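Entry 14. Structure prediction run on the chain below.
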Amino acid sequence: MPMGRTHPAARRAVPRATLGAAVGLAALTLVRWLLADRAVGLVLDALLAAAAIIGTLDAAHRARAGRSRLGWRCDTAGLTLWLLAPLAWLSPLPEAAATAGRTGFVLCTGAACWFTAKTPAMSSRVRLVVDGAIAGAALFIIGWHPLFEGTVDAAEGGLAGAAAVALPLGAVAALTLFGTVSITEIPRCRRAMPRLYMAGLATVALSDVLWVRTGHPLWAVGFAFVLLGTRVYRGTSERREVVSTHPGLVYAPYAALVPAIAVILVDYLGDGVPEAVAATAVVTGVLLIVRQQATLVENRHLVERLEATERRLRHQAMHDSLTGLGGRALLHDRLETATAEHRADGTPVAVIFLDLDDFKQINDVHGHAVGDHVLVAIARRLGAALERGTQYARAFRMSGDEFAVLLRGDAARDAAATARTLLAEITAPVEVDGTSVSVGGSAGVAVPGPDVPAEPSALLRAADVAMYGVKHGGKGGVAQAHG
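Output returned:
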C-alpha cells in the first residue's frame, strides 16, 4: 500500500470507533449520574482512574522524547494519588487524606503540562503557567456568586471549602496551560489526544464542584476521557518551535479578564465586592505584572536569538563552509576597505591568486572526500604561513581549488616573494589515511599601478589573469601583473 494512503476499512473504522467512544461516554455519564449508592459510584470512579493509570503507563512507554515520557509519568503519579480520595471516603481515613490525594492529582497534572511544553526558554514556561493562573483567577471571580460561593457554603468552609474551590480552579489552570501548548506547538493532525485529555481535566474540575454541591460527580467520565486520550496517542509529535508569545494568545489572558472586571464593577456598585473576590483581584494584578515581565524577558531572548541567527547567517554568507576561510564576498568587502586606504594615504595593498594544479586528478583517483581533505589542509597551511607575518595578510577561498590572499601594509611591498613562500607551503605532500597526496600550484599577483587601478574588481581581474598566464606557460610558478 502506498505511503500516505489509508485503507478504506481503516477509514470506516475511525468514525465507528469515534461513535462507539461517544456512546460509551454517554452511557457512563448517565450511569455515574444515576448511581444513588455513594460507595458503588466511588468504586466506579476508582476503577476508571486505575484504567487511566494503565493507559498513561502505556503512553509513557510509547513516548519518544524524555520530557514527554516524564509528563506521562507525572500523570500516572497524579492519578495514583487521586485514588487516596475514594479510599479515604470509603474507609476510616481522615478527610485530609482525600484532600491530599486530590491536591496531588492537580499538582502532578500541572507538572505534566509543564514537561509537555517543548519551549526551551524558562520565561516562556513561566508565562504559560501564569496564563493558566490568570484563567483560573478570572473563572473564580466570574463564578463566585453563581457557583463557588454556594460550594464553599456546602462544604461548610474550612479545608474542605478551600479544596472545593482551589482544586477545580487548579485543574482549569492546568487545562489552560496544556491547551496553550496544544495550540502553539502541536500540529493539528495530532491534537486528538490533547483534546480528550483537556476534556478529562474539565470534567474532573466540574466533578470536584458537583461532589460538594450535589454528591453526583463525574470523575469516572473524566478519567474515561483521559483513557481515550492515551489510546489515540501515537507517540511524541514533532513540535513547532515557539520563540515568542503566539500571536493568537498575546491578548487572550486580558480578554478573559474583561467579564471578571465587569463582575467586580457590578459588585462594587451593588452590595460591595466580596473579600474573596477582592483578594483574587489583587492576586490577578500581581500575576499580570509577572506575565508582563516574563513576556519582556521572552522578547529579549527572541531578540538575542535573532541577532545570533543574523551573525551566523552573515558568517555563512561570508565564509566557506568546508575550509572556514573567508569567501569571495568577504574578500570584496575587505578589498574595498584596503583600496580606499590606498587611495587615501598610499597604504600598500596586493592580491595573490592561487590555483591548485591538476586538482581534478586527485578527485578522480582518490575520490572527493580525499579532495576535500586536501583543500582543508591547504587552507590550514595558508593560514599558518600568513599568521607568521607581522602585517595584515589573510587567505580566502574563491571557489573549487582557487584561493586568494589579501596583503596590506608592509606585507604587500613584496607580494611576489610572499606568493612563492605560499606555493612552497601548499606543494608539500598531504597525508590522507596513510596515503601521500601531492598537489602543485600556480600564483598570480596584482598591485595597484598605472595599468591596474586601485579598485577591487581591477585587482582581482589582474591577479586572475596573471595566475592563468602561469598555468598556460607550464604551471608551478608566480607571475605579477604589471601595474
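Residues 1-14 have pLDDT under 50 and may be disordered.
Filed with the rest of this week's runs.
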